[in-house]
Amino acid sequence: MIHVPRWQIAVAVIAVVFAVVYSAPNFLPSSVSWLPGDPVRLGLDLQGGSHLLLRVDSDVVLEERLESVLDEIRTRYRAAGIGYTDIGVRQLTGGLTLTDPAQGEQAQELAEEADETLEIDVESSGRMTFRLDSNAEKELRISALSQSQEVIRRRIDETGTNEPTIQRQGDDRILVQLPGVDDPERIKRLLGQTAKMNFRMVDETASIPEAVAGRVPPGSELLYEDDGSEQGIPIVVRRRVGVSGDNLVGAAPVIDQNNQPVVSLRFDAAGARRFGDLTTENVGRRFAIVLDGRVISAPVIREPIPGGSGQISGNFTFETASDLALLLRAGALPAPLVILEERTVGPSLGRDSIAAGTLAGQVALLLVIIYMVAVYGLFGVAADIALAVNIALLLGILSALGATLTLPGIAGIALTIGMAVDANVLIFERIREETRRGRSPVSAIDTGYRQALRAIIDANVTTLIAALVLFQMGSGPIRGFAVTLAVGVFTTMFCSLIISRLLVLAWLSRTRPQVLKV
Amino acid sequence: MRLRLIPDDTTLQIIPLRRHAMIGSVVAIVASAVLYVAIGLNFGIDFRGGILIEVRIPEVPQVTEVRGAFEGAGLGEVAIQEFGEETDFLVRIERQPGGDEAQQAAVETARSHLAAAFGDAVEYRRVEFVGPTVSQDLLRGGAIAVLLAVVAMLLYIMFRFEMAFAWGAVVALVHDVILTIGVFSITGLEFNVATVAALLLIVGYSMNDTVVVYDRVRENLRKYKKTSLDLVLNRSINETLSRTVNTTVTTIMALGALILLGGPVVQDFSFAMIWGITVGTYSSIFLAAPLLLTFGVRRGAETPGPKAEGERAA
């Protein structure tokens, strides 16, 4: 008789119990809650939801940094009496031309003092260029990425989305997954704004027609004020920031005394002081509330506002006021975001996919079960039981791992059903051959399992390699598929080598057949 | 009565057919290459970029009405296709000129045109857009993945068998991949990330089949040291034929269920798999094994592998 180690029986029993217990929640109504496991987590393509891949345009951060470095250099050169023209930032490089090229050495020293992370190049013609060195550049980009991730998380949390996933990917990407969101328009709108806000004085001495014609006074810029139209009303605003949005600690939509939606603001201590000073010094003048380079409104200061809170009125509906308040609470993004990829699945398609996938899986299972019995008789029954355990084990492991089941994953399970019997087919064919060569039943079965082992392992390793490569290349649904496939390889080997073998051996020791009919 | 697709004493003369098989395969490979160059693959938005919207419109409009909704939208080529139910339509919009931002704007334009034509009754079952950056990444990633899989298989077979086996297996694999690309060219079925996943699985499956035959070849080479290589190969193929056919049948049953019942989203994937598995089964029998004659297997020398077991079986 073939010896069966006790541990094999124990392992088999444990596996079957685990498989039944952990896969059960997938088949039972959710009211049955005393089981330890949860149903397998469904991917966005099955439960519905939105997948957004965003790119953080961190060039903007680099350019801002260079702009402020150039400001610093300007100040120093003015103090040192160094003349220059043609100053500005282009393509991540700051540049200026010295009026007197002989001052090059001094200019370089001063620039180095202004910022030590600069790589400075001075040509004999007097043209100077400034770049951030690669370390500083990398640091800025990484911090822009992590800040963006944080701000995105805060903004999405404010919308009340359940269990969003916000992950960094690579050097400049952020993956946002929003289960259950089938209309991501609002979230896309919220993520589409950097929401940099500040309060600045309106330049009332400037002539608007002159500015529109391109002659803006130095220290000021031409912006447009929202009036509901596409373009807005031109307005000239000083560049110097009075109070920055960074000093905000709270924002909420409220209805003012005229029954108009407005956004009420609260500043931190420093912001409150600055805001108080600004309003005290400028009673009777206009200041502009600038959001992402656009003026929301430019009211006249009627009296000093010392308390650290204020209100923004503008062309708001209650919804836009709420969104603005949300953006101000969550903070500004360091750089604009670009949506590279969107995949949104509505709940009805998800439901249909689950229904179709489940039906296909069941039919596949049924067909394979019938075929195996038709071809291998009682041995086929053993393979079928092993197959049932296999599917339960696969679902149980996926549930316990917290892996995500996607539509391709369901296809993977259906495919596993087809391929899972391969190991048993190999074994049974071998047993058949050995029997034909005149071996006794016991010997044929023993040799069959042993001889087939090598081919089974080789064959499954190849599938595993394919699954690993899939996991490596894939995103979202394809990864789910790869995980399903890989787990399927292990459960299949286990079930066909241990479970089906134990069943066949149990049958063998009970009936002790003289002739084997495979 | 047991079902026997392959009778027990089957001895098909496969090895003598090898020239015909190879000529057939070479012709098929050349034809696939020509089709690929002449027609090309119908890349889905994954690889080409663009927009895909699946809508459900309860009042059952005609395809022409849905197409009419996009008139004057300025979105370039818009393809409309009934998808599954008669209320469901798949709208494909070509990649918009401009960068990633332009795709996002076009999605909004498309939605507003649909809303103008059919009102609020339109249900968005799926909205996907892929910008040029991501589509290029995906295309490169897909190509690398298929290459990586083939190389990984090559290495594994080199490790488990000897060189001749590895080359034979890889030729069979490349054959399967090229023929699958050929069939996607000629049918115009959408070639997307799921298709690449199918290609990888085909690589895995074809390898699986090949390994089973090779395993038997290796065993028989030890068992029948005096028999000529072509007879050993023919014998090995026949001995494993029943297994090969049974596994192919069960796998195709599962895939057939997926094609017929799995819903339109997995149909193309399942079709690719069925084709690939059929080709893969053919190539394991008619290419991978006969190629061992071409590449030359060392005989008599110690071959790596579990020798003791092989002798016990003999």
**N to C succession of SSEs of chain B:** HEHEHEEHEHHEHHHH
Low-confidence regions of chain A: none
Task: Give the C-level CATH assignment of the largest domain in chain B.
Answer: Mainly Alpha
Domains of chain B, number = 2
Helix content of chain A: 40-55%
Rg of chain B, Å, rounded: 25 Å
User: How many strand units of chain B?
Assistant: 6
CATH level 3 topology of the largest domain in chain A: Multidrug efflux transporter AcrB transmembrane fold
Largest sheet data of chain B: 4 strands, antiparallel
CATH topology of the largest domain in chain B: Multidrug efflux transporter AcrB transmembrane fold
Radius of gyration of chain A: 35 Å
Number of helices of chain A: 13
Instruction: Report strand % of chain A.
Output: 15-25%
Notes on the structure:
The complex is a heterodimer of chains A (518) and B (314). Chain A has 518 residues and is of the alpha+beta class. Chain A has 3 domains: 6-48 and 346-511, Multidrug efflux transporter AcrB transmembrane fold, CATH 1.20.1640; 59-137, Hypothetical Protein, Haloacid Dehalogenase-like Hydrolase, Chain: A, domain 2 (2-Layer Sandwich); 192-342, Gyrase A, domain 2, CATH 3.30.1360. Chain A has 13 helices and 19 strands. Chain A has helices at residues 6-23, 44-47, 59-80, 104-114, 134-159, 185-191, 208-212, 269-281, 318-330, 347-401, 407-436, 441-473, 477-511, and strands spanning 41-42, 49-56, 84-90, 93-98, 118-122, 127-132, 165-169, 173-179, 197-201, 220-225, 233-238, 243-244, 248-255, 261-267, 287-291, 294-297, 309-312, 337-345, 404-405. In chain A, the strands form 6 sheets. Chain A has a 4-stranded antiparallel β-sheet with strand order 7-8-2-18. A 4-stranded antiparallel β-sheet of chain A has the order 3-4-6-5. In chain A, strands 12-9-15-16 form a 4-stranded antiparallel β-sheet. In chain A, helix 5 crosses helix 9 (318-330) and helix 11 packs parallel to helix 13 (477-511). The longest helix of chain A is centred in the C-terminal third of the chain and has 55 residues, at 347-401. The two termini of chain A are 19 Å apart. The model of chain A has no long low-confidence stretch (mean pLDDT 88). By secondary structure, chain B is of the alpha+beta class. Chain B folds into 2 domains: 15-43 and 135-313, Up-down Bundle (Multidrug efflux transporter AcrB transmembrane fold), CATH 1.20.1640.10; 50-130, Alpha-Beta Plaits, CATH 3.30.70.3190. Chain B has helices at residues 18-38, 45-48, 63-69, 100-118, 132-160, 163-187, 193-223, 229-261, 264-295, 307-313, and strands at residues 42-43, 50-56, 78-83, 85-93, 123-130, 190-191. In chain B, the strands form 2 sheets. In chain B, strands 3-4-2-5 form a 4-stranded antiparallel β-sheet. Chain B has a two-stranded parallel ribbon with strand order 1-6. In chain B, a hairpin with a 1-residue loop joins strand 3 (78-83) and strand 4. The relative contact order of chain B is 0.15. Residues 302-314 of chain B have low confidence and may be disordered. At the A-B interface, strand 18, helix 10, helix 11, helix 12 and helix 13 of A face helix 4, strand 5, helix 5, helix 7 and helix 8 of B.
